[in-house]
Amino acid sequence: MQTVVSAPLALTPLQRIVQPRLVLEDGRLVRVGSRDEFEAPPGARVCDYPEGILAPGFIDLHLHGAAGRDVMEATPEALAGVARFLARRGVTAYLPTTVTAPWEGTLQALDGLSRAIQRPPTPGQAHPLALHLEGPFLSHAKRGVHPAEYLVEPDLPRWEQLWEAAGGRVGMMTIAPEVPGALAVIEAATRRGVRVSLGHSNGSLAEARAGITAGACHATHTFNAMRPLDHRAPGILGAVLTDARLTADLIADGIHVDAALIGLFLRAKGPAAAILISDAISATGQPDGTYHLGQMEVEVRAGYCLSNGTLAGSVLTLDQAMRNVMRFAGWGLQETLRLITLNPATRLGLHPGKGELATGADADLVVLDATGAVQATWIAGQPI
């Protein structure tokens, strides 16, 4: 049976459609247009949101956990808890993201996460698209909370082990380009379609550019765990903010990056190359207290997630990140939506199947109010 979803406005996000009709069938959008363009198909179920704004489902490229569960638990129960929470906040797809941990434990987690990715979308749950490896190929100088004892220098045999454990389902990998062996691994991962992201790096501008030449195409949580910008020695940030070959993501919680620099980031990367992430940990959606990021204990107080005094992820959600950008940078809802829908889908190579309300795309969508608050979520053509 076909379903028609309507509202006063749709933000695709590239277009504004007044009085839109979305026709859904078998988990896909089979027609997108306005009520003036076509009638609802006979016999179709009609779901109207008289005060809503229709938009694509959100995609989070960097997420460690939520609802008290960590993705590196890698059990069906843990991942279901995370996925249900995300769906209620408008996230329809995400990359479960690892954190540096003991080697064997990492391999075991990758195996469990790979199995979850293989399963078809579950009603009411955000779908894990692929894995994001954050570590263990990071800089000791800019490791953040990643345990120093588990960091390893990148080499091809280690990369192959990670790839095999993940069943080839690695969508993104964060790596420090200056670490010995990194360039060969960047090249190998890129050949397999992995989106290689520069991050947790103390690299120079030249080292960052070498990573880009080797195949890196993205940057992880810009400003955080990166050599600070210097006007005479711009370092990795000089490349991230100026090189058009890189997209880049940012944690827009007002804690990881000051509001003024969020505006600078958005002006530097522009509406097509900037992406918002959550970097959320298990504490997201939970009261203040003690939680885990991988094997590390994290104290959460008033939005700050700290492990031994160092920021350890966030309790941010993408809907809140969007509203923060609207407030901090003065962006409108439509242009901000692009940072959590079309841009991450494009970076992963999933557009036009995801990230836009368009004929033939997956029927993943959210219903928002004028402030960007989530009113409803649909995944694979089914409402939550």
Question: What can you tell me about this protein's structure?
Answer:
The chain is an alpha/beta fold. The protein has 2 domains: about 70 residues, Urease, subunit C, domain 1 (Roll); about 290 residues, TIM Barrel. The chain contains 10 helices and 25 strands. It is globular.
Précis, in short:
This protein is an alpha/beta fold and 384 residues long. It has helices at residues 76-88, 103-118, 156-165, 182-191, 205-214, 235-242, 259-269, 318-329, 333-337, 342-347, and strands at 3-6, 9-11, 16-18, 20-25, 28-34, 45-48, 53-56, 58-63, 65-66, 69-70, 91-96, 127-128, 131-134, 170-175, 195-198, 218-219, 248-251, 274-277, 289-293, 296-301, 304-307, 310-311, 365-368, 374-379, 382-383. Helix 5 packs across helix 6 (235-242).
Helices and strands in order, then pairings?
Layout: E1 3-6, E2 9-11, E3 16-18, E4 20-25, E5 28-34, E6 45-48, E7 53-56, E8 58-63, E9 65-66, E10 69-70, H1 76-88, E11 91-96, H2 103-118, E12 127-128, E13 131-134, H3 156-165, E14 170-175, H4 182-191, E15 195-198, H5 205-214, E16 218-219, H6 235-242, E17 248-251, H7 259-269, E18 274-277, E19 289-293, E20 296-301, E21 304-307, E22 310-311, H8 318-329, H9 333-337, H10 342-347, E23 365-368, E24 374-379, E25 382-383
Parallel strand pairs: 1-6, 2-7, 8-11, 11-12, 13-14, 14-15, 15-16, 17-18
Antiparallel strand pairs: 1-4, 2-3, 4-5, 7-23, 9-10, 19-20, 20-21, 21-22, 23-24, 24-25
Helix pairs in contact: 5-6
